[in-house]
Amino acid sequence: MAExxxxxxxxxxxxxxxxxLLPRLFxxxxxxxxxxxxxxxxxxxxxxxxxxxxxxxxxxxxxxFLVLDGMGYDAAVIGGPEQVPIPPSSLGRLAxxxxxxxxxxxxxxxxxxxxxxxxxxxxxxxxxEISPVIRVDRSTAALxxxxxxxxxxxxxxxxxxxxxxxxxxxxTVQAAKLVPVQPNTPPDPTILTLVEFVENEAxxxxxx
Length: 208
Prior knowledge:
Blueprint: E1 6-12, H1 22-34, E2 39-44, H2 54-59, H3 63-70, E3 75-78, H4 88-95, E4 102-104, E5 109-113, E6 116-122, E7 133-136, E8 151-153, E9 160-167, E10 172-180, H5 189-207
Parallel strand pairs: 1-2, 2-3, 3-4, 6-7, 7-8
Antiparallel strand pairs: 1-9, 5-6, 9-10
Helix pairs in contact: 3-5
């Protein structure tokens, strides 16, 4: 295996319960994964549900996270500036059903992938002194600047994917961009089927 020299961080946010976006978004995620030569980390930064989204009401916010888990997200941020945070009881029901961990606002989540340990820090928790730290600040949509040696992830517009490439082990930003989901982006058939399944299950909850 070639020595790791780059790490790519992909982020989304503001899904707001619209699961119909996810099959096309996954196609874009897969394209960006293939365009990366190193390790790829994928995070959702929050506002996964919205007050007007029926599926969030029917499942107490669980449905979108089940799809994100199926898409291979490495973590999803919960809490902070979200308009519709997932209730603790519903969060507890998800805990044993998913591979994807949650990053709770103002708490540090320890992650390990391909032998490298990271810390994801949404909000303003006490930061660890060791290993790379990925901070999350939803109050800004600014992308990190080239050459920066610390990584701060900002908010991401709906129907967009943010990408940040870093050198490893220097942990220096090489490039950052916001990639839109184009109208002609084809939906991924596997995620499309997963969304249909989750929505059908949610309708069952709504009818109870």
